[in-house]
Design a protein that fits this description.
The complex is a heterotrimer of chains A (466), B (161) and C (398). With 466 residues, chain A is mostly helical. Chain A is 75% helix and 0% strand. Chain A is built from 21 helices and no strands. In chain A, helix 10 (184-218) packs antiparallel against helix 19 (395-414). Chain A is globular, with a radius of gyration of 23 Å. Chain B has 161 residues and is an alpha+beta fold. Helices cover 50% and strands 17% of the residues of chain B. Chain B contains 6 helices and 5 strands. In chain B, helix 2 runs antiparallel to helix 6 and helix 4 runs antiparallel to helix 5 (123-131). Chain B is elongated, with a radius of gyration of 20 Å. Chain B starts with a helix and ends with a helix. Chain C has 398 residues and is α+β, with helices and mostly antiparallel strands. The termini of chain C are far apart. The chains are: A mainly alpha (466), B alpha+beta (161), C alpha+beta (398). Chains in contact: A-B, A-C, B-C. At the A-C interface, helix 1, helix 2, helix 10, helix 19 and helix 21 of A face helix 1, helix 2, helix 3 and helix 4 of C.
Chain lengths: 466, 161, 398
């Protein structure tokens, strides 16, 4: 099930909220678990069994870890951790990387091993990382082992974040399981955030998306075309993923949970380091807390820091997809971050702030070219066209531009916190006005969203494949 | 047994269950010893054959591009009238490696027939072809079904194997 | 003292802000759930629609719950489709969406260009090079194998080429003139009249329907003026032109949900003494057996959505026209739907016309030729269909 199809906001969500709120406190978690499992199983019920096996395995592993640690048996604990982590990663690898691995082996050794691709369970990358977070947190003592199978299952399958994040670290969720959660302020906040996310996805990402995919299919032949393509993708990905995250966090709030922020106006970044503090924050945090810091982080000298950064970014790229383009994308950022940290610091500080922002966004846009290209040669082809190779304009580019420049403009504006600023201005003048304006504004957005959902072809969230 | 052993056992049972699940879901299907006639009978029993007539190798070649000699047998029921979308093809493979080729020929045929009724010429037929059609590979049998009762016929097919 | 005043003030300000936020949140929540309730009630109290006229397809119905269906995920998919298809005021939302897309500058919806002068033109589809080569080779082989017959090939360009002036600015088109020329060069032993030039010369006239991918009878009349000399026909110069419909909304209107103007369908009846009857092979779409008819026009079709099927009632595997022309010529046509409004010009010049649609015809072409003493063979297609056809080569083999 996807958040932006008619079924979700008009059937599943209302029923879920009503059931959740009328359930007596003790049964709330059960209700939530049942809803989450239903949500997961809707698309592909076969994998429900697999998910339950994953939950069972990690549940028992957690208990083992907890008990071994209590008994000060660190060696045994480490074994359990290693085996469980490997089991989780093997499952992820089987669905996601098996084909890629075989393709490369075939290419290297000139073999023709049969490659079969398997449809991965939805949210596999996301919930695998959630599970790993649990194991690491228990092992390092950051959280207690979870004795309650219900609570543990809820952590894994919590439907707002199940399919596409934000990736919630276990100790954050653990804290929220205890305290009373439901209140009406949060519900209101949640609805607002959910509507914002829905609008971002349907009215910006999907609309820009139709142009982008058409351009990609046609193949743009000019500098101008390549830039339009790259900027379209830059905006589309942000509103798609950012919108989905907004919806997830909004849904979490409606159910009384605080999910971690995932995006913070990423294209207002002033440096690459800053960009990664604003884009897919929960993933960056996950890699920092569970890979970078355990490897030593930046505390063991320059050489080791560089090594750690490259490992983290290689893995980040790989997490996004089983393809060389994603790996190059990850390494691209790894190298840029190393340069920023060690080499360019003085240069960067000298530049005026406007130039710094512009250059950073430029680097980010170029990075996205690797993300959307089908192959490395395609990516380099597009980039070389962006920087002058070939004709400047071509008629196909002009055609697609005339069909999307308006929405691109709206998209660029939406990268800035304009809505919040306008809201504050109105609020200063009149409290009633801002509420009325909100209702009108969100009402209009919702109507347009309904039109988009009914009228549009089904467009699945881009990060779904992860 | 003490607690940690119990948990360890639980953990390994879960891993084993997952592995078994994966093997069952993704195994390429066992070779079935059921003779073609029995499979044919099982499938036809569930299907309305008023619009169908048995066809021969020439039609198999014309419609699917497949040569009957390559396989261990086939049963083809083509529509009597071009306007009927119902169709049944069962191919018994001589070698399981042929499965992909046969399945994609079936898919191509299905796509062609669907395209014919697209564009407003036959919404009911288009509906049947898109919503009540099945292409299924099971070991050494490949099945194409376009029929109102495709679901129950598919079940009969699987049961017969 | 000052400090605590300031903190009290900012605390108060924060409180007011929080209150506003709460009010905003609760209002939005109430409105959202009210809308959901409203939509829910509307859909509960309105019965499920079975068919969408605008989309020309069956709408999903409420799926029955079965454990099997649930386990395979089919029930889930069907239920999602059901929710979408039976959503209240579906057509209104689709129209609203289209309007918004147009405001944003989109000039293309679902593979249809929204053009000047209320024209809808289908976006170009790339030729299937492999199948095209197969078909051309099959035609050449066929020609060689029946060298005693006269062969004619006529490929008609589509609106995407002829009406390219009306396309949205810079929209990707298709150079069909070049494509047709390439086809001509690959064929040997056939007459290949050029209809592209004359259609382009008259491109400001109503050559194609505004809402449908077919060409009009007017365009067919121009094409006939080129086809006739190539086929050694001295054409009748006078026709009775009748308007049989002014309410035609065709396939392109269905595809994109917009019908800016309705189309007019005209029929051209040659002023000739030759009369004919039509024999349809196989049953018609509605299951009736209408083996013989006095007219190639099927009036009942004008009550359907797809009014272009007034010509012959659609596509049949084989249609035989027997005339009183008494000229000793019998024509075998391999055709697509563009030919349906062409035959009204051709019938006075042949004793028999056999119209074969290779997508459906399962019989032997060779025996057709023998049994009917065919003298001329005409391949009549529009460019788009011809370059994607996958059945001609097979049909010619038998």
């Amino acid at each position: 099930m996807s958040f932006s199809t008619l079924l979700f906001p008009f059937v599943f969500l209302p029923i879920a909220i009503i059931l959740y709120y009328i359930s007596p406190k003790k049964i709330r978690s059960v209700t939530l678990l049942v809803l989450s499992l239903l949500f997961f199983a809707w698309g592909n019920p076969a994998y429900l069994l697999l998910m339950l096996c994953s939950i069972a395995m990690n549940y028992f592993a957690g208990l083992e870890l907890g008990h071994h640690l209590q008994a000060e048996n660190h060696r045994r604990a480490k074994t359990v951790l290693t085996v469980s982590v490997i089991a989780n990663l093997l499952l992820l690898g089987f669905f996601k990387y098996y084909g890629f691995l075989l393709d490369n082996i075939n290419a290297l050794l000139h073999l023709k091993l049969p490659v079969r691709t398997y449809l991965a369970p939805i949210g596999l990358s996301f919930y695998t990382f959630s599970l790993l977070s649990y194991l690491f947190d228990v092992y390092r003592g950051k959280a207690e082992m979870q004795r309650n199978l219900l609570s543990f299952s809820l952590y894994v399958t919590f439907f707002p974040k199940l399919i596409s994040g934000p990736i919630m670290q276990y100790h954050d969720f653990e804290a929220q399981l205890i305290s009373p959660r439901v209140n009406l302020t949060k519900l209101g906040d949640g609805v607002r955030l959910f509507l914002i996310g829905l609008a971002k996805k349907l009215l910006l990402a999907d609309v820009i998306g139709t142009s982008f995919y058409a351009m990609q299919a046609q193949g743009v032949q000019s500098t101008f075309g390549a830039w339009v393509e790259a900027i379209s993708y830059t905006l589309m990905l942000y509103f798609d993923f950012g919108g989905y995250s907004d919806m997830a966090i909004g849904l979490g709030k409606m159910l009384g949970f605080e999910l971690p922020k995932n995006f913070e106006y990423p294209y207002l970044c002033s440096s690459i380091t800053d960009f990664w503090r604003r884009w897919h924050i929960s993933l960056g945090s996950w890699f920092r807390d569970y890979v970078y810091i355990p490897l030593g982080g930046s505390r063991e000298g320059q050489a080791k820091t560089i090594r750690n950064l490259m490992i983290v970014w290689l893995l980040t790229g790989l997490w996004h997809g089983a393809s060389w383009t994603f790996i190059i994308w990850g390494l691209y950022y790894g190298i840029l971050l190393i340069l920023e940290k060690f080499v360019l610091k003085k240069v960067v500080d000298v530049l005026p702030s406007f130039l710094r922002h512009l250059l950073t966004v430029l680097l980010v846009v170029v990075g996205w070219v690797f993300f959307f290209s089908g192959s490395i040669s395609e990516a380099f082809g597009t980039i070389s066209r962006m920087f002058g190779k070939g004709a400047f304009l071509d008629s196909t580019a002009k055609y697609y531009f005339s069909g999307c420049w308006k929405i691109l403009l709206v998209g660029i504006f939406a990268c800035f916190p304009i809505g919040a600023r306008i809201g504050m201005q109105v609020y200063r003048r009149s409290e009633r006005a801002v509420v009325l304006l909100s209702v009108l504004y969100f009402g209009l957005l919702l109507l347009l969203c309904i039109a988009a959902m009914v009228g549009g072809t089904y467009s699945s969230f881009l990060y779904f494949q992860f | 047994m003490n607690k940690t052993t119990f948990f360890a056992v639980g953990r390994w049972v879960a891993i084993l269950a997952a592995v078994i699940f994966l093997i069952c879901t993704f195994s390429s299907g066992k070779i079935s010893k059921t003779p073609l006639e029995a499979v044919e009978k099982a499938v036809l029993g569930k299907v309305d054959t008023t619009h169908l007539e048995g066809s021969d190798a020439q039609i198999l070649h014309r419609d699917y591009g497949l040569s009957a000699n390559d396989y261990d047998g086939f049963v083809l029921y083509s529509p009597k009238d071009f306007m009927d979308p119902e169709e049944i093809l069962i191919v018994k493979l001589a070698d399981t490696n042929q499965a992909e080729q046969v399945a994609s020929a079936m898919q191509k045929r299905l796509d062609e027939r669907t395209a014919v009724f697209d564009n407003g010429y036959g919404p009911a037929q288009y509906d049947l072809l898109t919503k009540h059609s099945v292409i299924r590979t099971e070991g050494n049998y490949v099945l194409l079904l376009v029929s109102e009762n495709a679901e129950s016929a598919l079940k009969a097919f699987l049961k017969a194997l | 003292m000052e400090q605590s005043n300031i903190t009290r003030k900012s605390a108060a300000r924060r409180q007011r802000f929080q209150k506003m936020r709460q009010l905003q949140g609760s209002t939005l929540t109430v409105c959202f759930f009210a809308l959901v309730l409203l939509l829910g009630l509307i859909s509960l109290f309105s019965s499920d629609r079975a068919f969408s006229d605008t989309e020309n397809r069956a709408l999903a119905q409420r799926p029955k719950f079965t454990w099997d269906g649930a386990a395979s995920g089919q029930f889930g998919k069907d239920f999602s489709a059901y929710t979408a298809d039976q959503f209240p005021a579906r057509n209104f939302w689709v129209k609203l969406n289209n309007k918004c897309e147009r405001i944003l500058g989109k000039e293309e919806i679902s593979g249809v260009y929204i053009c000047d002068d209320d024209y809808l033109i289908e976006t170009p589809s790339a030729p299937n090079e492999e199948e095209l080569a197969k078909n051309l080779a099959a035609i050449n082989t066929f020609v060689e194998g029946h060298s005693e017959l006269d062969f004619h090939v006529c490929i008609v360009p589509n609106a995407i080429y002829v009406m390219q002036d009306k396309l949205p600015k810079n929209a990707p088109g298709q150079d069909q003139a070049k494509g047709i020329e390439q086809i001509r060069q690959q064929l040997s032993g056939v007459n290949f009249p050029d209809v592209t030039k004359i259609l382009c010369a008259h491109k400001d006239e109503a050559l194609y329907y505004r809402t449908d991918h077919h060409w009009t009878s007017l365009a067919a009349s121009y094409a006939f003026s080129q086809l006739a000399p190539s086929m050694a026909i001295s054409p009748v110069s006078d026709y009775d032109i009748y308007t049989v419909s002014s309410s035609f909304e065709g396939t392109l209107a269905n595809k994109c949900g917009i019908a800016p103007q309705k189309d007019i369908i005209e029929i051209y009846v040659p002023k000739t003494d030759v009369i004919y009857n039509v024999t349809f092979s196989g049953t018609s779409e509605t299951g009736e057996e209408t083996p013989v008819s006095r007219s190639m026009y099927v009036r009942e079709r004008l009550n359907d959505k797809n009014q272009y099927t007034v010509f012959f009632g659609g596509n049949y595997p084989l249609v035989t026209i027997d005339t009183t022309a008494d000229c000793g010529r019998t024509l075998l046509m391999f055709k697509d739907s563009y030919a349906n409004c062409m035959v009204q010009f051709l019938y006075p010049y042949f004793d028999h016309i056999l119209m074969v649609d290779p997508r459906y015809y399962t019989g032997s072409v060779a025996s057709l030729i023998r049994q009917n003493n065919v003298t001329d063979v005409l391949f009549f297609y529009n460019y788009s269909t011809f370059t994607q056809d996958t059945s001609l080569a097979n049909a010619l083999m038998y």
